[in-house]
């Protein structure tokens, strides 16, 4: 697993890039998810949201004993819940991000967007 970048680097990234790039990435991902052909691309883009927001490196699930839900369960969840819940979740997070007080909540929400979308743990 790659080493995390410094807090200063991640904060500067957020201030100059993350705050505007993340909503753009989420909207492109959601448009991809609205089509059958684009779903794999959309899911991959959603999984990049924490990195786009604050340069957070994905954690190694094997290192802490975590595991993913099965692909079949994740697919059913995505079709029934994930596609629309992630859209609402991401837009609520974007709303919180434009306020000083809501910024920590927005960052927390954006980091959990892959899980809301497809039960994918980063």
TrEMBL record:
Listed transmembrane segments: 12-30, 36-55, 92-111
KW Thylakoid (keyword) present: no
Domain Inner membrane component: 12-53
Domain of life: Archaea
Pfam family, one: YccF
Coiled coil: none
Keywords, sorted A to Z: Membrane, Transmembrane, Transmembrane helix
Protein name, per record: Inner membrane component domain-containing protein
Organism: Halarchaeum nitratireducens
């Amino acid at each position: 697993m790659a080493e995390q970048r410094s807090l200063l680097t991640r904060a500067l990234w957020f201030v100059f890039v993350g705050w505007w790039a993340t909503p753009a990435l989420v909207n492109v991902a959601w448009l991809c998810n609205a089509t059958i052909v684009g779903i794999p691309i959309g899911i991959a883009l959603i999984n990049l949201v924490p990195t786009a927001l604050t340069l957070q490196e994905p954690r190694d699930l094997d290192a802490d004993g975590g595991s993913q839900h099965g692909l079949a369960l994740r697919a059913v969840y995505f079709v029934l819940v994930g596609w629309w819940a992630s859209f609402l979740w991401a837009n609520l997070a974007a709303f919180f991000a434009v306020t000083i007080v809501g910024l920590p909540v927005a960052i927390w929400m954006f980091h959990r967007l892959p899980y809301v979308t497809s039960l994918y743990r980063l």
